[in-house]
Design brief:
electron transport; 127 residues; 0% strand; mainly alpha; 5 helices; elongated; 71% helix; binds ascorbic acid; single chain
Length: 127
């Protein structure tokens, strides 16, 4: 069964929203706006690493119009987009690994790399 573009948009938005929920709390800890709880941070980092694998499946033909901020540039520059999403998966895995150390000196740069991955695609492919 071919997925419906509206369903695909809803699906990938859900995955990104759940990622932002956890990444936002992690960011508060990294920035010292919230007490750092190593166990909770690591749990969230694992969740984000798994969630990062989900959205790609939702970027299907016909899903770059309607209730979405995703730009048609994604289809035109598919390899670049796919590369960026793969980097997100790699960087979130590295952050989940760093989180296990409980050492903010390792976590901070890994967190920054994930943030760069988010921003890189937003700058190029998001309204
Ligand atoms: C977040 C969030 C994003 C990224 C991005 C990083 O917390 O929701 O999309 O960080 O702003 O540049």
């Amino acid at each position: 069964m071919a997925a419906d573009p509206e369903d695909a948009i809803h699906y990938r938005k859900g995955a990104f929203s759940a990622m932002a929920w956890h990444f936002g709390t992690m960011g508060a800890m990294v920035k010292g706006k919230m007490d750092y709880d190593a166990e909770d941070f690591s749990r969230r980092a694992d969740i984000v690493a798994q969630l990062s694998k989900l959205p790609m499946e939702g970027f299907i033909a016909g899903s770059y119009e309607g209730d979405t901020d995703a730009l048609p540039a994604i289809e035109k520059e598919w390899d670049k987009f796919e590369g960026g999403m793969n980097m997100l998966v790699e960087n979130t895995a590295a952050l989940a690994e760093a989180a296990k150390s409980g050492d903010m000196a390792q976590i901070k740069p890994a967190f920054g790399e994930v943030g760069k991955s988010c921003k890189g695609c937003h700058d190029n492919f998001k309204n």
